[in-house]
Amino acid sequence: MAKQNVSEQFVDILVRAGVKRMYGVVGDSLNPVVDAIRRNSAIDWIQVRHEETAAFAAGAEAQITGSLAACAGSCGPGNLHLINGLYDAHRSMAPVLALASHIPSSEIGLGYFQETHPELLFQECSHYNEMISNPQQMPRLLQTAIQHAIGRGGVSVVAMPGDIASQPAPEKSIEHALVTSRPTVRPGDAEIEKLCRMVDEAKRVTLFCGSGTAGGHAEVMEFAERVKSPVGHALRGKEWIQYDNPYDVGMSGLLGYGAAYEATHECDLLILLGTDFPYNAFLPDDVKIVQVDVRPEHLGRRSKLDLAVWGDVRETLRCLTPRVKVKTDRKFLDRMLKKHADALEGVVKAYTRKVEKHIPIHPEYVASVLDEIADDDAVFTVDTGMCNVWAARYLSPNGKRRVIGSFSHGSMANALPQAIGAQFTDRNRQVVSMSGDGGFTMLMGDFLTLVQYDLPVKVVLFNNSSLGMVELEMLVAGLPSFGTDNKNPDFAAIARAAGAYGVRVEKPKQLESALKDAFKHKGPALVDVVTDPNALSIPPKISAEMVTGFALSASKMVLDGGVGRMVQMARSNLRNVPRP
Fold this sequence. Notes:
- By secondary structure, this protein is α/β, with parallel strands linked by helices.
- Helix content is 37%, strand content 16%.
- The protein contains 24 helices and 19 strands.
- The strands form 3 sheets. The chain has a 7-stranded mixed sheet with strand order 10-9-8-7-11-12-13. Strands 2-1-3-4-6-5 form a 6-stranded parallel sheet, sandwiched between helices.
- It is globular.
- The N and C termini lie far apart (83 Å).
- Residues 537-561 have low confidence and may be disordered.
């Protein structure tokens, strides 16, 4: 049997860790690793057109599967392109292993062609970032990198010079069992008892939930019922907590709606569950606050805490719920449910009147139709900007759908590459990229990746020929919009020229049939919807609070608009409110 080289050993360890594919662009110092993948039937090489796409795709795959995903870039400029997608994966706690291929080891530090220093460049967007400078470091260094990515949730970067990749692997290398899943973390009894006392002493408790509630829906609902608590959420918590939720009071933050802001400010005790919600201007400073998070470094960095609890949300609530006293007073909960329903009723018709006659098409209408006809288990990837608004307001979670975006990093151009990673996990699952024209054109070259692999991703392009969110930011700051207009082509024609299904929609009456036809198509498809660039709902008066960063409750009005099917849930929840 032929002796393994370092590249072959590297690939074998990835396979042992459960990696099914590696995304990247081949070349130069990366060639030995890609050749090792070519000869290994247990892993696939996914050729993309831009390494940024590779990192975004790997991050999305990791978020869908919960398992390690991988990407790679060749030396210098190749691996530099990974950095934006790696920042997004790291801030999303997606376990990703990135291979930053390097120049020949004998030339490092001498200003060689394409020389960079990946061990410095990726330091801020990784838990682990080291270079293999000797074959004897394999496989221990790679195993350590994998365990950092999985165990801590985020990115590990391994830099490897091309000449090292081609050298023989050490004959007696140390291999140990790999960590491929994370344990649950239970708080200590002392913290549980403190939290129990605080809950029992409070008359009005509000829960505010983030992505850390994933897998804990039942536990949150049980606790909310026991203490009669309204339940609000951040954007990343929407898909995990809003569905089947009789205590729902909406979302807080810049894209917020409903009564979440009021519920978090009018309570005695606010419990932050698995959220690193960054907008502290939306958090109260005059109520008691408890934060529960599996990442101890998140505790207390957004607001002053009265109690910090280190633990998984689900395990914490399993320990806490049986110990707290049952509350019988529903007055606060019912008042918040009523406020929530009233707030939604007030805006629900804002963009539904005469929509069949409005040209250009209201983007809100596009999102509402998309929500109605998409599969119950669809995966939506959402571009940063106004597409975030439409997803937050109109996509209805149900426990099976997924919504992935650059919600923590806030990068443009994330939706299409994330859709690639999501679709590779299951070709039979519907994946819809909600792309803005600005984000789509930034990485448009990787639409060709859909065609090359015949990935059935459906790109719904909200084409308003502008950077809509940037325009809104300028308007709220009292600035004239400048540099935000895009001169766009017929994207549907480009899609057809590339070998995909493409259709352009300019009239509302064409929309539903166009989406249905695209969704029926077995391969990649693009629906270019020409939307209204003026679909920005601005309050009649711009307050000082808004100018200084969308602060406080007045800023919620900035994006007040329709809310789709969420109003139906709010109406249904009102049935639980006792009538006098």
